[in-house]
Specification:
Number of helices: 11
Largest sheet: 3 strands, antiparallel
Order of helices and strands: HHHHHHEEEEEEHHHHEEH
Strand content: 5-15%
Distance between the termini: 63 Å
Structural class: alpha+beta
Shape: elongated
Amino acid sequence: MRLRPHRPIRPLFDLFSARGEVPDFLVSRRAEIGSALDDLAAIPADRVRADLAATFRLKQPAAWLNDLAAGSEEARAALVKAVEEGYRSLVEPRWAEIAATAQADLAQRGHIMLRQGVASAIGSVSAAIGRLGNVVEIGSPADRDLPAPHGLDFVPSCLAPETVVIPGGAGEPVTVVYPIPGVSARSGPGRSSGDGLSALVGARRAAILRAAVVPRGTTELAVQAGVSLSSASEHASALRNAGLIMTVRAGRKVLHTATELGASLVRASDAPLCDAR
């Protein structure tokens, strides 16, 4: 082993390929960290080797990953410890907010499915994934078809760099893990009120809507838009009643995020004008 035991989270950084991919065995369907860690500790060595080989086909892996691929129990223990420490340090403190963000994203996919059908809902997750009957068509990284007789599970992730498709076992659905789209808000206190969105909903509500293209609490909306807390709450309520913002609760906190319609209005308003010369 070639690890520093006093830095248990360090091995996580070695698990990313040159393209930002991670081995498939790190992606878990489990909703509870203890069960996910138990699964990780029990993954067959041949699958670990295969997934590492696929991930690091363009990059030489860290030396300890060669030990992991060779079946080293010490390397496997270090992997499990690193994932657990990463979760405790990076995810657990913000889990309520992460869960609320995921719920808001799934709600938007649900709206798309109800209005436009399953194909549009799948397409809204990733242009590389489609479905034809009981087959999932995957266009990246290599074209292939994946049987899905038991349906699909969509799992939004704040950490996944790209969409990952996990084949289902016996009687299980195919799982699609995808990054939650992050649209950088370009709003702020100094933004001009002469744009089309401001003309449509008012300057302050436009600022709130722009701020909500990424999930934010009421206080964060107020700071981002440059308005008072009470004003932010009032405008968020009006935008929610208009179907432009949705609000979900995360423990004692509420998060506001733009709906598909609200985000579309922001994109349309903020898109650069074509040069007609």
